[in-house]
What we know:
single chain; mainly alpha
Amino acid sequence: MSPERKRLTREESRQQTRDRLLAAAAELFTERGVNGTSVEQIAERAGYSRGAFYGNFEDKNALVAELLQHRTRRELEEVRAVTEDAASFADALDKLRVWNRDRARHLPEWLALRMELVLHALRNEELRPLLAERELLARNAHAGGLEQAFAARGVTSPADPAFLALIVHALEDGLLIQRLLAPEGIPGDVVVDAFDLLLQSWTALAQRGAQGGDRDAQPAVTAVTADPAGHSADTSATPDV
Length: 241
């Protein structure tokens, strides 16, 4: 005899409903776009009524907001899980290569959904702060990784880690778009290749600075942190996307 099925608590049942609605919305947003998807379609795909949707989300924007947060948390958790047992930084990069290759197999769906959510948030002023918060969370994770990498190499970051993290994060989006457009010529782990190259370059720059031999290079680092008007930027603050 099969074991009796565990009865869900009210809170567990509610969370299951929300999870199914989020999953259904993610599928439909990928297929049709956010604006091309209705609340009724999301509820139907999840197997619920329109009333169930509004029992969990105020409107479609509220669902988009939670989906943005959910995807960010899940991706950060996946990366931490992949790298937490790494024996060295090189081992961590190898593990990240495997993770990125696996993600590349689902890149059309993954990137389409990300772009849809970003575009929808940019078009809706009330969602922009949430998008900025989501991007800041991702950039902070990059900054933390960079600081650890520099510390392991015995050097000080050649620029504000938040600024370097912004470069890495923006480069990741661009590389993934290029990978989607030309998959035959760009490897699935191209993001890790780019990060590794940048890190080697920044480490060399930091080492020259420590040896006092980068007098010519240092102004270039300062220049990229200045605003277009020529005023010195406050590099202690992470720029908004």
